[in-house]
């Protein structure tokens, strides 16, 4: 049973209701890892974004979690919370504004439904897992400015994602000004005067309401939203706001979005191209994200030329822009963190060198990342008559790599824990569920990339028996080579490049 103090309303923002609603809740229980929201009437005059502060303490048993509230326009203030423990939770608000202080309420957190696996975090040093204990393998894509397109294109993007292999989406908060991105967005994050000059002290709630609704849509599809907080491709002044505006924006975004279980934080796309920001700024932003996010969502930062120091404590995983896959295993070991090649150029046909890979090359790069024990993010930049390009706008996919990426995703998921690189002459990776190198691996994957041996001796363990299969990554065919392999095993191969051999423990 849910109880509220006078003047407060509650909204359940779970997977079946809209992301923003002022209607009374249709159900009074909140699933574990879903969004509980309470709203309150307060002052609407002056500048509520600067003059009013609100927080709430949520308590279960002897444990308490403090979350910040935010102003949502029309004299309405909200607090959102993602309960991570079933049972009866209570809350109490705190504010120097009398009308917002001392509101109390409670709700019951019930077990999660089948499709709700909770937020993703690092698992086994170099991999990822959901909060319910199941594994998560990031096979992502990039649609930078999809939330700033027409509603028709956004709905088309969601339909495309629903049938795609991608379970992570890199997306910007701020609009983008760059090649193929010259249109004005439908919404702006701050109030603007008649001359188009932004008032960075006046946040536009409707802008953020829209983005969080799309984060909710992605959550309902089982897709992680890799939310990029800053970027350099700007003509509105968002990349060079004063420090107080940067900090206020960060705190506002975290207060609004953090309760969504599928959120990841990327401080920036190509942070080193943002000339108005210094190392001190990035350190401050990282500190704010750590302090303000009570759920410790995954955190990283993306570079163009100057690689960030991913050994920093605040970084949970590396987000790379590079094609140096041969260094993946080395970087994993150096940073002791998961490595994601979030930008390794794109399949497409635009004139820019970074945007005209073949589908074969895009799929090939996914394989190079996988056998290095890393993960890779897809992008697509095919020119189209309607000027809708997936990499930035979303819409439809036209390339040939997504089907092959889906095939590879199934192979990696079959490892039941992720792949770790082997020190081998050819590219290879292994997995053993117990993560004990004294125990024979359950799963071995060899990839010969451009090489085409006619036969090869595989140094298998002598203590276990394996089934050997030949894999064609492009035709997506798997063929039995030999049953019951153990010890040094010589196999005849087809003398064709880009083939793989998989050994599964029997």
Polypeptide structure, described:
The protein is α/β, with parallel strands linked by helices and 506 residues long. The chain folds into 3 domains: 3-110, Immunoglobulins (Immunoglobulin-like); 136-260 and 320-413, Glycosidases (TIM Barrel, Alpha-Beta Barrel); 422-505, Immunoglobulin-like. It is built from 9 helices and 32 strands. The chain is globular.
Secondary-structure topology with pairs:
Blueprint: E1 3-4, E2 8-12, E3 29-31, E4 36-41, H1 48-51, E5 55-60, E6 63-71, E7 76-81, E8 87-94, E9 104-110, E10 120-123, E11 127-130, E12 135-136, E13 140-142, H2 151-162, E14 168-172, E15 190-192, E16 198-203, H3 205-220, E17 224-230, H4 243-257, E18 263-268, H5 279-292, E19 299-300, E20 318-321, H6 328-335, E21 339-343, E22 347-348, H7 359-371, E23 375-378, E24 380-381, H8 390-393, H9 401-413, E25 420-421, E26 427-431, E27 443-447, E28 455-459, E29 466-472, E30 477-485, E31 488-492, E32 500-505
Parallel strand pairs: 3-9, 13-14, 13-23, 14-17, 17-18, 18-19, 20-21, 21-23, 22-24
Antiparallel strand pairs: 1-9, 2-4, 4-7, 5-6, 5-8, 6-7, 8-9, 10-11, 11-12, 15-16, 25-26, 26-27, 27-32, 28-31, 29-30, 29-32
Helix pairs in contact: 4-5, 7-9
């Amino acid at each position: 049973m849910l109880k509220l103090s006078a003047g407060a309303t509650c909204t359940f923002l779970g997977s079946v209701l809209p992301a923003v609603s002022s209607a009374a809740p249709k159900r009074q229980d909140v699933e574990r890892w879903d969004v509980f929201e309470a709203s309150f009437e307060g002052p609407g005059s002056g500048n509520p974004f600067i003059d009013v502060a609100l927080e709430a303490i949520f308590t279960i048993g002897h444990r308490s979690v403090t979350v910040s509230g935010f102003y949502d326009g029309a004299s309405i203030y909200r607090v959102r919370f993602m309960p991570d423990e079933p049972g009866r939770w209570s809350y109490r608000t705190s504010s120097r504004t009398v009308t917002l202080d001392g509101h109390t309420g409670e709700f019951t957190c019930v077990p999660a439904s089948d499709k709700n696996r909770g937020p993703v975090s690092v698992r086994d040093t170099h991999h990822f897992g959901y909060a319910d204990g199941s594994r998560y393998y990031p096979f992502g894509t990039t649609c930078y400015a999809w939330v700033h397109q027409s509603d028709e294109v956004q709905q088309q993007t969601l339909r495309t994602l629903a049938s795609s292999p991608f379970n992570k989406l890199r997306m910007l908060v701020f609009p983008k000004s760059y090649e193929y991105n010259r249109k004005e967005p439908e919404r702006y994050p701050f109030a603007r005067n008649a001359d188009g000059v932004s008032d960075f002290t006046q946040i536009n709630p409707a802008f953020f309401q829209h983005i969080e609704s799309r984060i909710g849509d992605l959550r309902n599809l089982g897709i992680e939203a890799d939310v990029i907080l800053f970027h350099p491709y700007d003509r509105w002044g968002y990349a060079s706001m004063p420090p107080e505006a940067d900090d206020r924006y960060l705190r506002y975004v975290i207060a609004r979005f953090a309760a969504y279980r599928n959120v990841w934080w990327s401080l920036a796309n190509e942070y080193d191209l943002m000339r108005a920001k210094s190392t001190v700024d990035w350190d401050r932003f990282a500190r704010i994200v750590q302090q303000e996010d009570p759920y410790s969502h995954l955190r990283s930062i993306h570079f163009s030329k100057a690689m960030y120091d991913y050994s920093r404590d605040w970084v949970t995983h590396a987000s790379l822009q590079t094609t140096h896959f041969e260094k993946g295993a080395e970087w994993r070991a150096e940073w002791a963190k998961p490595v994601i090649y979030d930008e390794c150029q794109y399949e497409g046909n635009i004139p820019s060198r970074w945007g005209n890979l073949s589908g074969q090359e895009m799929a090939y790069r996914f394989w190079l990342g996988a056998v290095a024990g890393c993960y890779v993010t897809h992008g697509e930049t095919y020119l189209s008559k309607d000027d809708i390009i997936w990499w930035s706008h979303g819409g439809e996919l036209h390339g040939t790599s997504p089907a092959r990426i889906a095939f590879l995703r199934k192979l990696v998921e079959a490892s039941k824990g992720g792949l770790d690189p082997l020190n081998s002459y050819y590219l290879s990776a292994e997995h053993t569920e117990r993560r004990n190198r004294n125990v024979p691996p359950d799963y071995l994957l060899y990839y010969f990339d451009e090489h085409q041996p006619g036969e090869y001796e595989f140094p298998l363990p002598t203590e276990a028996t394996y089934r050997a299969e030949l894999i064609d990554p492009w035709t997506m065919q798997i063929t039995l080579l030999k049953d019951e392999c153990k010890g040094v095993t010589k196999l005849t191969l087809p003398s064709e490049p880009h083939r793989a051999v998989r050994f599964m423990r029997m």
